[in-house]
Specification:
20 helices; mainly alpha; 78% helix; 0% strand
Length: 420
Amino acid sequence: MTTIYVTWGIAALAVLGVIVRPGGWPEAIWAVLGALALWALGQIGLADVWAGIAKGTDVYLFLIGMMLLSELARREGLFDWLAALATEKAKGSPIRLFVLIYAVGILVTAFLSNDATAVVLTPAVYAATKAAKLKNPMPYLLICAFIANAASFVLPISNPANLVIFGGGTMPPLSKWMATFALPSLVAIVVTFVMLYWSQRREIVTETLERQTEAPVLSHSAKLAGYGLLLTAIILMTASAMGADLGLPTFVAGVLTTVLVLALTRQSPAETLKGVSWSVLPLVGGLFVLVEALDKTGLTHQLASLLQDYAAADGKTTAMSAGLAVGFISNLVNNLPAGLMAGTTVQAAHVSDTVSAAVLIGVDLGPNLSVTGSLATILWLSALKREGLHMGTWAFLKIGAVVMIPALVLSLLALVLVAP
């Protein structure tokens, strides 16, 4: 029993380090230190460490491919062009600009993942609001944070957490995915928009938007990057429709597109590789090891048994409850470890597709409550800091409570009401 408590304690401290980042150390350091501490103290063996790391292979490949594509598109100015185009099409209306940026955010999240929205769309939106001479860019920057999670279950490729929940060969084909998540995704996107606009309406309607903005020229290399992204999206949707793993196709598409664009433009790969957030990989790997250690204590088995019993008694109520619980827990421990534990539990419990889908919605949408809820929101905060901007924890929480809670409740209701 003491061994179990030691494992739980180390895992809790590691996750706390990921969220709080004592001393300003990167999140990845705390996840890796937690995994190393568990191994050094004999809580898990080296075989368990490698087993945990290996379980994330598909996620690593997916992240590498998406980060390469996102950084390439950013460097070539594709996202700056999209944001500037939205500003131009707004025709002096701050409300229209809000709607257009939200639409761009949906597309980027759905086809490039929520992390891409946080990392590359945020600075592009800031540049566009600066060019439009807006007094307060924050309402428009908040779009990047909220849509990154709200649209992250439109497609399997929209969030790396989706690969975790439906891991181990259980990822549904694209047709089944769309049948399950189309309505909840639509509800999440619409409700998030309505509540976010309502919370920011005073700031938006009092703005004056500069009509004449100088749109950047879309270079030949930026067009190539855009074609690469479009081709990648087609490849991934095809792979998803066939029920295949998404990691390897994403990795291959990302590498080939990057090599092609850099070769045609005669650029060195150094700057593109330097711009990729490689620390995400050890962060995810460390979290996989922590979850593997927790699994060894029997925690996953206990949770799976509990979930199985409740699901057998009342599947729809269990789906609603599980989705809400995971959604709020994700804000306490971050949705990466919460998603890993929830995914392992769901797979072990062999529950219905409705319960699994509800858990995924909780993991994806729930983090919109707080700044520490998801990796995408943490990356969004980092993007703000690079631009000299700040969003306080309490200020975000007040907005998040207004936006996330109705979106999560109504999305889960949309799921269970149409479920068989």
